[in-house]
Amino acid sequence: MSISETIIRHYNKNERAEQVLKQANAAASLSQDDINPYDQMHVGGHHATAAFFQRLPIKADQHILDIGSGLGGPARYLASRYRARVSGIDLTASLCEQASFLAEKTKLSNNVKFQAGDATALPFEAQHFDMAYTIHVAMNIHDRDSLYSEAFRVLKPGSLFGLYDVMLTDKNSTLEFPMPWSNVSDGSHLITKEQTQKNLEHAGFKIIEGHDYTNEGLQHLRAARDKTEKDGKQEPQKFLNLEKALGENILRAHMIIAQKP
Question: What is the pTM of this model?
């Protein structure tokens, strides 16, 4: 099985997506605010989404690319909060279909469009977008050079590229699996913040700023675990492993803003 097939299989069965879609199907009307707490599949959830986008000068007339859009939560947040126009691309076609359905339910389909595609070979012309971002996507991608060079290619000169990812503190660290992005080590391709910055610079980007969101993210994970246990349920092992790795400083959650000169 190829790496792409492994990733698609992992995300095809997604408990979070099933929960959100069930809620959306049952609702007569739905706003993005209603599902913000449920459709953000990354450390810190919609709180992290808001903090991340506050670091980017987003305008309503911009065309923004979401690389690895998943269930589409951040893209719909942008459309709802900033009235931005967002194109989302994801390797998993079923997630694109679900993201499109939720855009229709929340009446945001005029501002957000989703399509299946490869982040390392983007199906867009050069200098096409005003801004681009990835949120918890690169952990599944071994070819970082292609990921970042493709983001650089499709951005207009002067545009910003933001990323929010989980990164290793030490490249030799060993993780316990499953993790939210992969059940086995073969599907996980984490690198350090320092290597990420080198990859971005190699692609042509200039690093503008960085922010460590680990502490805030840990608070979110612990609150979610406490709520799950209070409801008499058990938190999935993948989230317990992630919380442990962040708490032991094996992993960090970093936001980085870069610019195409």
Answer: 0.90
